[in-house]
Amino acid sequence: MTLLLIGVLAWAFDIQPVEASGYIYIRADGSIEPPTAPISTMDNVTYTFADNIYDEIVVQRNNIAVDGAGYTVQGTGSYYSPSRGIDLSNRNNVTIKNMEIRNFNRGIWLYLSSNNTLAGNNVTNNYFGIDVAAASPNNTISGNICNSNNQYGIVLWSSHDNLVSNNKVSDNHWGIATGYSDNNRILNNNVSKSRFGIDIQQPCNDIIIANNIVSENEDGIRVTSAFVETRYNTILNNNITYNSHGIYASRLSGSVIHHNNFVNNTDQAYTTISVSVWDDDYPSGGNYWSDYVGVDLHHGPYQNETGSDGIGDTPYLIDEDNQDNYPLMEPWSPIETVHATIDIDPDTLNLRSRGKWITCYVELPEGYNVSDIDVTSVMLNDTVPVCLKAHAIGDYDEDGIPDLMVKFGRAEVIDYIMANVNMTELFEEKFMTVTLTITGKLDDGTPIQGNTKIRIIARAGLPKINTKISFNLSPNPALSGQTITLTGNLKNQLGNAIGNAPIEVYYSIDNGRNWVYAGTIQTNSAGWFSAKGKLTIVGIFPIAVVYRGNFRYSQSYRIEKLTVKLP
Question: Taking the CA atoms of the chain, what radius of gyration do you get in angstroms?
Answer without folding.
Answer: 26
